[in-house]
Design goal:
The chain is of the alpha+beta class and 251 residues long. The protein folds into three domains: 66 residues; 87 residues, PH-domain like (Roll); 73 residues, no CATH class. 40% of the residues lie in helices and 32% in strands. It contains seven helices and 15 strands. The strands form four sheets. Strands 1-2-3-4 form a four-stranded antiparallel β-sheet. A four-stranded antiparallel β-sheet has the order 8-9-10-11, covered by helices on one side. It has a four-stranded mixed β-sheet with strand order 14-13-12-15. The N terminus is likely disordered.
Length: 251
């Protein structure tokens, strides 16, 4: 008998943000303390020397800085917690509930799976966050790294989704179809890049770095094709397809 977890699927929930809330409370407490402690000093300066001298008080600037920091932190927390997410992955489907929204996707219907890094600006402060983008062609879902065990979720989805995408893609190419991977289109006869067709014999080799997939052309005066990894959908599938025709080396 399979375990209950395997029958129901593996579950992933949003991370608890009590640490962030505690940080916000500490900031607000510090703001109140500084403001109250320096209250009489600020009032005295205002009464004796006017508003210009009053707002120059160190207490004023300290309290203002802490308050601004607290407001920014509070807004970030509200943005992150506005839609708690729950994900359940089974052998055949993935269930996603986000607030009142519920999605159910069959794994064999997923046509694109990408792990990307997103930079979001909260009041001009950049926040780096990884995300998983899932697409069926008609439906798109994005899962963020605010989920617990995010890397485990990414590995699980890769393990269950990419093999099916690879098999369907290879069958389509062998049947004579051309499949797009971002800026390049792959067929059984070669690739198309920037409206130019290259036969497999014109490609000398390929390698992938952290940032780009480089395709070296056989011609001496030809400039290598450089494809940004973050713009290549289904990157592992593209690499496996290229491996069948033109060896890709990992660097």
């Amino acid at each position: 008998m399979p375990s209950r977890e395997k029958r129901q699927g593996q579950e992933f929930r949003s991370k608890p943000l009590w640490v962030a809330w505690l940080f916000l409370i500490i900031c607000l407490t510090a703001f109140i303390f500084i403001l109250v402690y320096g209250y009489f000093d600020v009032i005295y300066e205002l009464m004796q020397h006017g508003i210009a001298r009053g707002i120059s008080s160190g207490y004023f600037y300290g309290a203002s800085a802490v308050l601004l920091f607290s407001v920014i932190s509070g807004l970030m927390i509200l943005l992150l917690t506005r839609k708690p997410t729950r994900v359940i992955v089974t052998a055949e489907q993935i269930y996603v509930s986000r607030g009142k929204e519920v999605y159910t996707l069959a794994l064999n219907a997923i046509t694109q799976l990408d792990l990307q890094e997103r930079v979001t600006y909260y009041l001009l402060i950049p926040v780096h966050q990884q995300q998983i983008r899932i697409s069926t062609g008609n439906q798109n879902i994005i899962l963020y790294s605010s989920l617990r065990k995010f890397s485990q979720l990414a590995d699980l989805l890769s393990e269950r989704i990419y093999p099916g995408i690879f098999i369907r893609t290879r069958q389509a190419i062998q049947a004579g179809q051309s499949i797009e991977f971002g800026e390049i289109t792959i067929s059984r006869d070669g690739i198309i890049y920037q409206n130019r067709f290259y036969q497999w014999s014109e490609l000398k080799g390929s390698w992938i770095t952290k940032e780009a997939l480089i395709i070296q052309l056989a011609g001496k005066n030809e400039e290598n094709i450089r494809l940004l990894v973050r713009k290549l959908p289904n990157l592992p599938v593209a690499i496996r397809i290229l491996n069948e025709y033109n060896r890709v080396n990992i660097k």
